[in-house]
Write a structure and sequence with these properties.
CATH class: Alpha Beta
CATH superfamily: Methylesterase CheB, C-terminal domain
Number of helices: 7
Number of domains: 1
CATH topology: Rossmann fold
Shape: globular
Low-confidence stretches: 5-10
Order of helices and strands: EHEHEEEEHEHEHEHH
Structural class: alpha/beta
Strand content: 15-25%
Length: about 200
């Protein structure tokens, strides 16, 4: 698997996905199932979930996608065609150097339900214009600020069509925040948009 040395249109994109709760977890699984291992992108995923129970996100996602799913380590060098996730009290961000993952330990819940914004803002700051922000189902409004930052940085923004309450709140708040969203649709539409933007590694060889 080729390393992603720099984020530019000729080598690699970064796709940052945020969601919360059980519906958001299902959304992530469905979306990743639509993506190929040949995609010319690093995929970083944040799911707001309970800190009081063991996390089964890695085990839940792995059988559903051909993409390797990795629980990120701090400083880990990023590779194309790989999905990086954090843990409930260890949040992932994009670090410009490398490029690599930055993992923030948060045992006291300093970041509360703002971990999607944490990821998306780091991508907006460090990825360059070759970035895509995706908001899937979830409650509250985490991700709205981060998606706006990606839009303002020249990236592509996508939001899942809002579902039923309370899991429609994250998409609705992202749509209503003020910046235009590039694509609003279901999993297949979002996956098609990601594939169209990023391309595949073989096509760039």
């Amino acid at each position: 698997m080729a390393d992603c040395q720099t984020f530019n249109a000729q080598t690699c994109w970064v796709v940052a996905i945020g969601a919360s709760g059980p519906q958001g977890m299902n959304d992530i699984r469905e979306l990743l199932g639509e993506l190929s291992t040949e995609i010319a992108a690093v995929i970083m995923v944040v799911l707001n979930r309970s800190w009081r129970q063991p996390s089964y996100l890695h085990a839940f996602l792995t059988p559903a996608t051909a993409l390797p799913v990795v629980i990120a380590a701090d400083g880990e060098h990023l590779q194309m065609g790989t999905v990086y996730i954090g843990e409930p009290s260890r949040h992932i961000m994009l670090r410009a150097q490398g490029p690599s993952c930055e993992v923030i330990a948060d045992p006291d819940r300093k970041y509360g339900n703002r971990t999607v914004d944490l990821l998306l803002k780091s991508v907006a700051a460090n990825a360059g214009p070759q970035m895509i922000g995706v908001i899937l189902s979830g409650s509250l409004d985490d991700g709205s600020l981060g998606l706006a930052a990606i839009h303002d940085g020249g990236g592509i923004t996508m939001v899942r069509s809002p579902s039923n309450p309370p899991w429609d709140a994250m998409p609705r708040n992202a749509i209503d925040f003020g910046n235009p969203v590039g694509l609003i649709g279901d999993f297949k539409a979002i996956a098609l948009g990601i594939r169209a933007a990023c391309g595949v590694r073989n096509a760039r060889a």
